Amino acid sequence: VSTPQDALLVILKSLMPACLFNIIGFGSTFKTLFPASQTYCEESLAVACQSIKRIQADMGGTNILQPLKWIIRQPIHRGHPRLLFLLTDGAISNTGKVLELLRNHSCSTRCYSFGIGPNACRRLVRGLATVSGGIAEFLAEGERLQPKMIKSLKKAMVPVLSDVSVEWVFPESTEVLVSPISTSCLFPGDRLVGYGIICDTSLYISNPRSDKRRRYSMMRSQESGSSVFFHSQEEGAGMESWNHSRDSEGCCPAEQLDPLSHRAGTDVKVSSRRRAYSTTQIADHEPCKKVPTASDPGTALVKNPLRKTHLQDLQQVSPEPWQVDFQ
């Protein structure tokens, strides 16, 4: 293991000042150099270099799942994205579980994996990098590890965006559900996609004195505690742009199909807009669950629950009042 040792020493001495690091050796069991990630300084660097020089390939088989669970349980520090450099020369029997675990925490952990020698499992090495947005490298017999690790380190140490917030501005007469941000850091080349569901609530708030408006306001205030966005803030703005886009693109189904809305003849006067925020919450982060797809192994035998509904059950469903009115 002299070549990996030399490469690790070079990588360790190339880290940025004030970053956090730790070293974990794994086999049948695993050992951590520090009980928690340490700040990079002269003292911690000296301890790490001495530990690397004493590394021996004597820890038995390959068990990645347990050390990976330990890593994920460690707290995430703001401004310090978790970058995992994994070196392995073998294969494991639970590759699927390892990939699933890292996929569920890919928003906070990025893996740069290195397969050393002909016995390294290509599915494992490539999969770890793919599900987390990292890079996979393979080394043939006699090939040097240092250049490939330096290449991955340069890509990993580029400046990133953290504490990302997305601000949505929408009219007061709407209620919006926005998607949470699914990553704690944005690396160069990453794409952040956000979604919002907008519902027109003008029918509920058209009459300021109606009991329906009071019930709606109470409902919205109760639901705001579990909402994905912060409490709305009002700002003075007109509704011309919103009305124009809504008329051109189509309105809510309830507004299209309910004839009562056309008979009422009431004008919705709203002169303010609200803001909603979608932001990263590292302290309260929960792993995103993977949605099974037809291409995943083992999903072919799972029946679609929607197919259990019989036709006669659907025929017994009574129509909505607006459907009867419209007909």
From TrEMBL:
Question: Where is the VWFA domain positioned along the sequence?
Answer: 5-138
- For the region Disordered, give the residue spans: 240-301
What is the protein's name according to its record?
VW5B1 protein
Starting at the broadest rank, the lineage of the source organism is: Eukaryota, Metazoa, Chordata, Craniata, Vertebrata
Q: Which Pfam families match?
A: VWA_3
For this protein, the record's InterPro entries field holds: VWA_domain-containing, VWF_A, vWFA_dom_sf
